[in-house]
């Protein structure tokens, strides 16, 4: 549950930044709350709270019950967190991340980059490097082919981890586990 909670907060942050995280936390604590109660708890303006709630609702992460006050005839909206679809949403996000990493890997594999050797200076494609006469646009040093094998290794590792998590690839058998012999 703790891991799911972390995922929920991460998604909330993507949707509405720190304020959305605060709203989710407040909802978790209260279980059910109106927008005004949430505004009071979090100190966030009620308009913003409302915007966040609708964004969470769109993402299928929050839902509400409409309750009529018999005396005043007014309707109150009681919001709660909805986690039924969370695993599905997490999976979709991981698939997206996987596609992004694969694309990055493809770019890193296909493209040769040129770099002056100073960290922070730009990596240029062949065409870009050609345009600058194979000198760094910042420091003017001569550009060399950039060794991106470490990046490629890292990307491959992350892709593999994600694919295992998504069940698209079998986890490698851990060979180093001590076989207990009697
Ligand atoms: Zn440079």
Report on this structure.
The chain is mostly helical and 182 residues long. It folds into two domains: 83 residues, Arc Repressor Mutant, subunit A, CATH 1.10.10.10; 74 residues. The protein is built from six helices and five strands. The chain has a three-stranded antiparallel beta sheet with strand order 4-3-5. Strands 1-2 form a two-stranded antiparallel ribbon. Strand 1 and strand 2 form a beta hairpin. The longest helix is centred in the N-terminal third of the chain and has 29 residues. Zinc ion (ZN) binds next to loops.
Summarize the structure.
By secondary structure, the protein is mainly alpha-helical. 54% of the residues lie in helices and 12% in strands.
Counted up, domains total 2
Counting helices, strands and paired strands, the structural category is mainly alpha
β-sheet strand percentage: 5-15%
Corresponding CATH superfamily of the largest domain = Winged helix-like DNA-binding domain superfamily/Winged helix DNA-binding domain
Indicate the overall shape.
elongated
Name of the level-1 CATH class of the largest domain: Mainly Alpha
The bound ligands are:
zinc ion
Amino- and carboxy-terminal Cα gap: 37 Å
Mean pLDDT: 91
Low-confidence runs: none
SSE arrangement, N to C? HHHEEHEEHEH
> Radius of gyration, Cα only, in angstroms?
25 Å
How would you describe this structure in keywords?
Arc Repressor Mutant, subunit A; 182 residues; single chain; 5 strands; mainly alpha; binds zinc ion; two-stranded antiparallel sheet
Describe the SSE topology.
Elements: H1 2-30, H2 35-42, H3 46-58, E1 62-68, E2 75-81, H4 86-110, E3 113-115, E4 124-125, H5 126-131, E5 144-145, H6 149-165
Bound molecules: zinc ion.
Zinc ion (ZN) binds at residues 116, 118, 121, 136, 138-139, 141.
